[in-house]
Amino acid sequence: MRAAIYNPYLETLGGGERYSMAVAKALVNNGYHVDVEWKGAPIKKKLEERFGMDLTGVNFVKDVKRGDGYEVCFWVSDGSIPTLAARKNFLHFQGPFHDVNGKTLLNRMKLFRIGKVICNSSFTKAVVDKEYGVKSLVIYPPVDVTKIKPKRKENIILYVGRFSTLFQSKRQDILIKTFKRFCKEFKDWKLVLAGGIEVGEDGSLGKLEKLSLGYPIKIVKSPSFKEIKKLYGQARVFWSAAGYGVNEKKEPEKVEHFGITTIEAMAAKAVPFVFNAGGAKEIVKDSENGYLWKTTAELLKKTKGLITTRGLVKNLSEEAHKSAQSYSYERFKREIIGLL
């Protein structure tokens, strides 16, 4: 059995790329010969190091011929609808594409060849279904909850997300500005910002470094999975401002489409505080397994409340950890293989 995978964004090493490699891994584990189309520089080792994945059995080739000659084709859309030729074809949207004339006659004809449209969140699904006139299936991304574990906790507030304004508004600048207010009162805490710089770094990183000067703020560039695991394990709190200042209805692509790093932090028992927009609302239930926030004043108030209320960190970190278990790789594998 042969399977083809196409993702035009592999070099960004982001959540959608991890999703594609998790599909590849699930197919290999189910007996498929898997080919991933990639015409750029060798990338397999980079993917393994960033995501902590063993991609043995996954082959990288120049052309999968849109699935022609394969039993299965998993194709990540760039907003367009491809003409796929495998026996079973799956089209994946990792972002909420809109205003792209999705309901054209040509697209509707191409969709006849696609067995299922898959989205990474209900947030993405709502936009995609409306734009293309489809009824997509949500399969949440996997998190390796067996590898990401809590360690001896420190007074660290962590955020993990790429240093780029190319695709989304991650807004690390808001986290820095808010933390500078926070640490006036809580002087023994530090902020750690970690993320990739491979694609879309447009000078904003230098601005963040300048903004951080003189404060207990550390910036970690393009960390390996091993480094990320350690940071998750040590952090007591996870902050995210992704989507801050964005009109979610007008620019859904700029808010968090899902939020895989939030779940990774929760798996390590870090209490998440995420901006109340996009796919993040599907992960965090306010005051149950973390917190949602809309203003920086609210973020500060809720963070201070967590830290100063006896027993609250322990209770919420346990609930966060429990919630993260439902996003395991084994669950993801079952859902992907179930489509075949």
UniProtKB/TrEMBL annotation:
<feature type="domain" description="Glycosyl transferase family 1">
    <location>
        <begin position="149"/>
        <end position="322"/>
    </location>
</feature>
<dbReference type="InterPro" id="IPR001296">
    <property type="entry name" value="Glyco_trans_1"/>
</dbReference>
<protein>
    <recommendedName>
        <fullName>Glycosyl transferase family 1 domain-containing protein</fullName>
    </recommendedName>
</protein>
<dbReference type="GO" id="GO:0004377">
    <property type="term" value="F:GDP-Man:Man(3)GlcNAc(2)-PP-Dol alpha-1,2-mannosyltransferase activity"/>
</dbReference>
<dbReference type="Pfam" id="PF00534">
    <property type="entry name" value="Glycos_transf_1"/>
</dbReference>
<dbReference type="GO" id="GO:0006487">
    <property type="term" value="P:protein N-linked glycosylation"/>
</dbReference>
<dbReference type="InterPro" id="IPR038013">
    <property type="entry name" value="ALG11"/>
</dbReference>
<dbReference type="GO" id="GO:0016020">
    <property type="term" value="C:membrane"/>
</dbReference>
